[in-house]
Amino acid sequence: MPKTIIVSNRLPLQLSIENDQVHAEPSVGGLATGLKSVHRDSNGLWIGWTGLTAEEIDVQHEDAIKKEVQDQQCAGVRLTESDMEGYYYGFSNRTIWPLFHYFMEYAEFEDDFWESYKTVNEKFAKVVLENAEDGDTIWVHDYQLMLLPGLIRAQRPEVSIGFFLHIPFPSYEVFRTIPWREEILKGLLGADLLGFHTYDYERHFLSSVSRILGFPASFNSISLTDRVVTVDSFPMGIDYEKFSAFAKANHEQTDTAQSELQRRLQHHQEETPDAKLILSIDRLDYTKGIANRIRAYEHFLEKYPQYSEKVRLIMLAVPSRSNVPQYQLLKKEIDELVGRINGRFATVSWTPIWYFYRSMPFQNLIDLYTSSDVALITPIRDGMNLVAKEYVATRTDRTGVLILSEMAGAAKEMNEALLINPNSLDLIADAIKKALEMPERDQKKRNKYMQSRLKRYNVEKWATDFMNRLQAVRVDDEYVRTK
Ligand code: ADQ
Q: How does this chain assemble (predicted)?
């Protein structure tokens, strides 16, 4: 029976070694949830890196790890520390990530990074080819693996290959600055179907293909010499039911069952009933516009001093890629900004920003979403932004206001949010005021429309739509080739 193989940089599991025993726990991230049915049904297999480098794995644990991984219907790709340096921290996160998010001045074009990226994509290809048979369907994820569709196609033309990019695809003028632009496009074109979050990313990709490789691209298909490649947009959704169910349970919880954070938040609300909470959650990344957001909040406090002691920004920044220099600099900048603003505006009974630099358990994430009157999400660029969608899904009584950057893919589906240009501190400050003063009726009306859309196009629908489309384009292509 043909099977579906999912390939991503990381496997959807957490490996740990305790008392010489190896354990693998399934992870609960959005991608893992969305692809659960694709993975579990149809005899599926997930291929990716386990999270432990070859140097971190003792020889005596190797077989146990392999077995644990296999038990989760997964197969591991063996990567060394030097692979991770060059392919992941290097080419993926110091070349592609900044460039695809229009941070051109951060992009490093290093031959060594590129060589490592090619080597690791070949390692992934080897594991895929060991496991794939003709007739199988392979779904490759994200910017770390852009050469993989081409490498698989070259060896096994009779498999069906889909690729989904989770970050923006930049305009041709930006993309063409990459020295290895042709190889990257050819790698991607090994797929039968290429998916993007928005129509704009899809359009940018088509224009790069026709201008760099000269293949005719019309509407949403590209005619290669021997095949047709389909390109389309599939905006990724969230596990709506899970977020809304957790939020409902949160509201119904008795005092004793509450988390420490929830108790604190409730206590804060009882002490200062007219004070409002503004929430900010992201990985600590320069694309997320965190520094600008803090400056905009400062500008808001200057421009509207009547809000002193009446509002608090609760900011969660999750540590990320902390060995890449730009991330270290950003961390320092944010620490300083938070210190400066708290020092400047605080009173004996009020701290304007509560700042957490850490990862939090899922339950705390829900506590924050359900307790906040406003979510302030202002990325400079973001492929989609799931936090915006999760916030709206947890507002079970439909109150709450989402302020969202126009530069996030999610803005295309969330027109009822207060959309702002993240580069204008003044617009953000005014949007904060508008959000804090928005009548409940208006809040509920906006959230009602967004919720019904998010509920319908959830992450499972996203995954099945992509898979159905992949089957359909494969059938069409076979028809064209045999005609
Ligand atoms: P990210 O850049 O990581 O994803 P985002 O879409 O916001 O950004 O997803 C973050 C996820 O992490 C959310 O699901 C959120 O719930 C979770 N999360 C955040 N803080 C957490 C915490 N402290 N503990 C546990 N979980 C936490 C990339 C792209 C995005 C795109 C996604 C999906 O950059 O643009 O939306 O992939 O395609």
A: Homotetramer.
Question: With a 6 A CB cut-off, is 390 part of the ligand 1 pocket?
Answer: yes
Helix (H, G, I), strand (E, B), or coil: what is residue 65?
Answer: helix
Q: Does any ligand 1 atom lie closer than 6 A to the CB of residue 321?
A: no
The pair of structure tokens assigned to 25 is 């726990």
Name the average pLDDT for the chain: 94
The label of the residue with tokens 């060394």 reads 80
Tokens of 237: 């959704």
| Tens digit of each residue's pLDDT (9 = 90 or more) over 55-77 | 988 888 899 999 999 999 999 99
Which candidate, 472, 386, 390, 459, places its Cα nearest to that of 39? 459
* Distance from C-alpha of 230 to C-alpha of 238, rounded to nearest angstrom: 25
CA 430/CA 436 separation, integer angstroms: 10
Q: DSSP E strands: which ranges in 135-272?
A: 137-141, 160-164, 193-196, 217-218, 221-223, 228-233
Gyration radius from the chain CA atoms: 23
Q: How far apart are the C-alpha atoms of 4 and 334, rounded to whole Å?
A: 43
ipTM score for this prediction: 0.97
The helix/strand/coil state of 101 is coil
Nearest to 90 by CA among 303, 321, 411: 321
Q: How far apart are CA 481 and CA 59, in angstroms?
A: 48
63 included as an active-site residue: no
- Cα 439 to ligand 1 centre (Å): 30
216 CB burial (10 A radius; 0-12, 13-18, 19+): exposed
